Predict the structure.
Amino acid sequence: MNDRTAQPIGVFDSGIGGLTVVRSLLRHLPHENIVYFGDTARVPYGSKSPQVVREYTLQDTDVLLKHNVKMIVVACNTVSAVALDVVQKRAGAGTPVMGVILPGATAAVAATRNKRIGIIGTQGTIASRSYTNAIRELDPAVEVFGQACPLFVPLAEEGWTDHKATELIAREYLHPLVQQKVDTVVLACTHYPILSEVIQRIVPPAVRLIDSGEATGHAVAELLGRSGELNPSTLAPNLQFFVSDIPYKFTEVGERFLGARLGRVQRVGGLG
Amino acid sequence: MNDRTAQPIGVFDSGIGGLTVVRSLLRHLPHENIVYFGDTARVPYGSKSPQVVREYTLQDTDVLLKHNVKMIVVACNTVSAVALDVVQKRAGAGTPVMGVILPGATAAVAATRNKRIGIIGTQGTIASRSYTNAIRELDPAVEVFGQACPLFVPLAEEGWTDHKATELIAREYLHPLVQQKVDTVVLACTHYPILSEVIQRIVPPAVRLIDSGEATGHAVAELLGRSGELNPSTLAPNLQFFVSDIPYKFTEVGERFLGARLGRVQRVGGLG
């Protein structure tokens, strides 16, 4: 019998923002082994062209496939938006691939009452209209309003979560969505949950924020449950973190995103 | 006779910020042919480790060497700080290499009266202490205070040059330098001249801002004059722009930095 249950879940991201998705996985699936890869040598992806993001995605997928993963979670919204097919094709039929867009879109459609949903993300994610398409496929009656927020990633990495400047910037970005009277806003970038308090303060109190990464943790648990591939272990899982660079403030920023100690992180060379 | 005068000056940068250095070159040397390469597929370098920056630098240098350049200008402060030797070794003795740090440091030492100089730049540039070392070599009596300003690059790229949030952020970053009573501040990142108005508003009026890129244009003109390699042409120069990716808002941001129309930009593949 080929027991895949103990094989790790592979997660990759353009950098360390995807650790917010790992945090969600650990909450929903506390006994699953995880291999994480962050392409910190080439981060960010969100402002780069789809062509370049697709090239990098192929290499990121290969890093995870070497670790004999039982499935791949694409934590990066930009990759999920413009290159999910690249991952699926490379991984092959035996290795399921889950992006963050369908879970986020599904949660948003379930949450909205007035059928007006805002999406905030990188330029790549918003320009792709991937969330809009996914939402409209789930419910054609929903109106979707996208807004790129390029300064949110550096603000989250700097840890300026409660700064007056962050509030001013968020107010400017979110103004068009508030004007459109959305009742649901999707945090369509791994970094944005770090800023959810300031975002929630700016939008009207009834507006629901949907964390795509959180929704993805839930969706992964469901998928593995359905396919009978949940790890039956009750021990602490084996977590392995790989990156293409150890940049400045790596541990500080990484632990803020993961919400826990990172432990040992290994560098993967030869990518760029 | 081997006439090198018409060969282009090669300029490279981690992205398109180096176009502010090209702008300065065009002002000082309006008839020099220029080949520019921006590594927009892997930008930014300023938060990445010296090891990764040195790997990328080698490849960037090779892109320029293919164009038979008569000298190389390293527009990127981070590369000038942690990898100038990589460029020099690859280019060889026959191709002079000019970084932005020595020109910037020289201009700052000439400008200061109270011998207290502030340096603002990326995390990589500040952590390297390259400006401090260069300044102290020119004048050991000068005190140097470094301050990393990671949000300045995304603010400059977003074009938020006159926004209240930018002022708040700049005030926070510059506060320690103002407290140290520096009378000179070096803009040690290609993006920062875009924000010079707001920076000048925040520091006391007598504080002089030194633009390293501007100082570099002057230094390149002097170097080529001394070596007899100035282009005697009085025609409009041939400007060639190469990048490793055409990212979002490329032309808009690039033309803001260059201060002119960009014309045709060609993508160089196979780097990352």
User: Anything to note?
Assistant: The two ends of chain B are 39 Å apart (CA to CA).
